[in-house]
Each structure stands twice: as structure tokens, then as C-alpha cells.
Amino acid sequence: QCAVKVITTGGRNRATHLLEDHDAIKAEATLLRSLHHPYIVQLIDVFVNPGRAIYLVMEIVHGGDLFDRIVERTRYTEPQSRKIMRRILSAVHYLHMDCNIVHRDLKPENILCVSRTND
User: Fold this and answer.
1) For residues 87 and 69, is the Cβ–Cβ distance under 8 A?
2) What is the Cα–Cα distance from 10 to 6, expressed in whole angstroms?
3) Which of 7, 30, 61, 62 could be stapled to 15 by a disulfide with Cβ–Cβ 3.0 to 4.6 Å?
4) Pfam families, from UniProt (predicted)?
């Protein structure tokens, strides 16, 4: 199974600029496909509908985002919080140190949980 994230052109943003530059799309797709870490969702493929959208085919995760998980639970123990933070920091460390990548939008809404029952 996989998930497809659709990035449409709804104004002059980074996605719009990428849609106009096929070489940039290929370069970014190659970079994203090269990321291999247990806490980073794997990009499988990229399709482009010129002038309209970019389709990112990714491994599927069923747990929703961390923000919704925090709201649902209302409370985390220190060991639970530590476990989550270690995983996030492991992924960020990999991006920074091994790949020379900065995330730039790290927030609970952009962190996906693998399953509904497990953190």
C-alpha cells in the first residue's frame, strides 16, 4: 500500500516554482528518494502534471499526525515524551548530519505516527 500527497498550484509558492522547473523537480525527487531512516516516511515515486500538480507517492502510515495524537491523549508521561522526542531528534540528526538537509517546518502537524495504537 502507498499514499499519494498532491501538491497543487494555488498561487505563487515553492510548489508553483517547482512545477515550472522540471530539473528542480527531478533533483528534489532524487534527493527525497535517497532518504532512508526508520523515522522518515519513504518517498516511492513522483509524478508531475505540468502546470497543475505534483504527486508524491509515499509509504503509507495509519496513525495520523502527532498534533492530533497530543490533542486526543491530553497528557503524556515524561518517558512517553522522551521516546517521541528521541525518534524526532534521531530523524532530524540524520537529515542534518548525513544528508545536509534542514527541515524548515518541523511541527506536530508534520510528524506522522505509524499506527493509532502505538507512539
Assistant:
1) no
2) 12
3) 7
4) Pkinase
